[in-house]
Write a structure and sequence with these properties.
Distance between the termini: 79 Å
Helix content: 10-25%
Shape: elongated
Strand content: 25-35%
Largest sheet: 7 strands, antiparallel
Number of strands: 11
Mean pLDDT: 90
Number of helices: 2
Structural class: mainly beta
Order of helices and strands: HEEHEEEEEEEEE
Length: 212
């Protein structure tokens, strides 16, 4: 009696075990799918090598150039006596190939934001140098091409208007801190000095790595 009751259970367990142990189609090759998803990336910051931090307030005080130095003589007023260098644009860009539906290239634009103030008939000249990229972070081509001679904001490029600083950026990461595009600021006269008025002017510079 007990053996008869146990027999169906033993047979059922054996059939179940056989059903899940093998698919009977194995060969000397085994495969399975693997998917990798790479999103587009567009990141930028500005490192100030003078302070060792991301760029903050930068002040041009013409009193520093007129009370002493090259402009202390009557009849002299050289704006290039003041400048600021060792700013670095760090950026990471991941683009797609042609026809992929992703951005193929990017660019870095800069402007004085709407609402900024700046002396009349003068420009802020922003001069970029060729990109410096960490080992294996990109190529000369993928890091982009800087605008020769830089851009001028103020009179040449009105407040609230973009000027292109770096173009043709592809997949690249420059590295942090003193890597990427080194830029220099300088003041330039662009018009009659008669419109140059005393006062405190405040502008916000905005750099944009395009992500269309």
């Amino acid at each position: 009696m007990q053996l008869t009751k146990l027999l169906p259970t033993v047979i059922l367990c054996a059939v179940t075990q056989m059903g899940i142990s093998q698919d009977n189609n194995d060969t000397n090759i085994a495969t399975h799918p693997l998917n990798v998803s790479i999103p587009e990336v567009a990141l930028i910051d500005i490192y100030d090598a003078n302070t060792g931090f991301e760029a903050a307030d930068i002040n041009f005080n013409m009193a520093d150039a007129t009370a002493t130095g090259t402009n202390s003589e009557a009849g002299l007023y050289d704006f290039t006596a003041l400048g600021y260098t060792d700013l670095w644009l760090n950026y990471t860009s991941v683009t797609g190939a042609g026809g992929s539906g992703y951005d193929v290239t990017r660019q870095i634009d800069v402007q004085m934001e709407a609402g900024s103030t700046f002396p009349a008939n003068f420009d802020l000249r922003i001069t970029p140098e060729a990109p410096v990229v960490v080992a294996n972070g990109g190529t000369v081509d993928s890091a982009g091409t800087v605008t020769a001679g830089g851009v001028a904001l103020g009179t040449t490029t009105a407040i609230g208007t973009n000027a292109n600083l770096v173009s043709s950026i592809e997949s690249v990461y420059t590295g942090d801190e003193a890597q990427g595009v080194r830029i220099t600021y300088a003041l330039e006269q662009n018009g009659n000095f008669a419109d140059y008025q005393a006062g405190l002017y405040s502008a916000t510079l905005r750099y944009t790595l395009s992500d269309l």
